[in-house]
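Batch manifest line 456
LIGAND: adenosine-5'-triphosphate
JOB: complex structure
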Amino acid sequence: MNFKLLVVDDEKNIRDGLAASLRMDKYDVETAADGNEGWKRFEKGDIDLVITDLKMPGLSGEELLKRIGMESPGVPVIVLTGHGTVENAVEAMRNGAYDFLTKPLNLDRLSLLVKRALQNRELAIRHKRLEEELERSRQFKTMIGTSAPMMKVFDTISRVAPTKASVLITGESGVGKELVADAVHEMSPRKNKALIKVHCAALASSLLESELFGHEKGAFTGASARKRGRFELANEGTLFLDEIGEIDQNIQIKLLRVLQERKFERVGGEETLEVDVRLVAATNKNLKEEIEKGTFREDLYYRLNVVNIEVPPLRERKDDIPLFIASFMKEFADENGKTIEHIDERCRAALYSYGWPGNVRELRNCIESAVVMCKGNIITLNDLPPTLRNNSDEGWIKIHMGTSLAESEKIIIMDTLSAQKGNKSKTAEILNIGRKTLHRKLAEFNIADSDETEEA
Ligand SMILES: Nc1ncnc2c1ncn2[C@@H]1O[C@H](COP(=O)(O)OP(=O)(O)OP(=O)(O)O)[C@@H](O)[C@H]1O
Ligand SMILES: [Mg+2]
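JOB STATUS: finished
ARTIFACT:
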């Protein structure tokens, strides 16, 4: 990143000296001879860091600091203060200055300060970009994802949603099956009618039957009044049957009939009811295996599975991880009234290289706990649960069958970086690539490339 710095000081010698020294560090430097001129330049935009004297004619450094803080709170301001006026500097820090330097200036210290401030700024900028990308990536109100496998899922959703076809959503636990069901309903012409959800595993078989189809008064002990079932409630809308793999044979037969004829009777009732319901079901079981075992009816399977949406596990769409992190961080920071600026690089690497057996749900919980644990406004490795902190798996890198070559390369780099605790020299050495190549790759992966954790 090419940074633009603004130096504001009324003393020409200091101004020029600072500018020359910072230019040697390869920054773009502009100067201003007083506060007013400095503010005019700043207002034009694209300044990444400001170094300003405090005592100046016209607009003072304090005032400039305040204005910058209001206009662009993310831009670090380093203040310069004369000998014996440290109180002013402390006051400036209170008003949001990044740090201060006393005159006569130690240029090495300045160089270090600027470097550190800009590293943070770069991370913050990347984070902001991710948030913007996130906004754009929200295909369906709540679902995040821009990776190729998710684009395929979104595509299927948008094609099947307008139809009445039954949808079977499959995938491991925590991949987002319920969100897919929500999206199918939301994007369908039924969106203003009911979306009724039934968690099939949560109810005993007899209860499930009356829950789905309703019952007549006196149908069984305790049935003191007629009750309408979920099928009736979902009329003209969508019925979502979660954990469909758990229902027993008796109910499977009844479901099959509703799917074939759109007709059923309440438990203990004679009257045949007709409904217009769009059925969406989900399971993390392999129903084909259940059919082999004889626990799931094949005919029902084909009725449910008119369109299958397989939601891929998180480890097969790692490109979405940075977006998930940004989104969950914002959500939980807001919820907990915290300001979290970003996640440091080692932590990001650990989050990236982990296998996420619990998928998006596990990632979401992990970010929530990290936000809660985080003491400052940067999440570090220490804020992660132990399973993630020690995710080195004794010198092995596991890559799932079906992972693309590009994705595999990323996993190898991130795992190595994580095992080397963020040390890039060692990582480059182990992988036998140049540091420049490593830096370039990290930038491509959207992993902030700073030297902060170097040789840590
Ligand atoms: N693409 C996504 N965007 C945002 N949040 C997601 C996404 N996928 C999953 N989540 C979040 O992850 C959590 C788990 O999602 P969900 O309950 O839909 O998973 P599931 O596949 O139904 O899991 P299970 O099989 O255990 O029921 C939820 O908090 C959900 O909001
Ligand atoms: Mg679910």
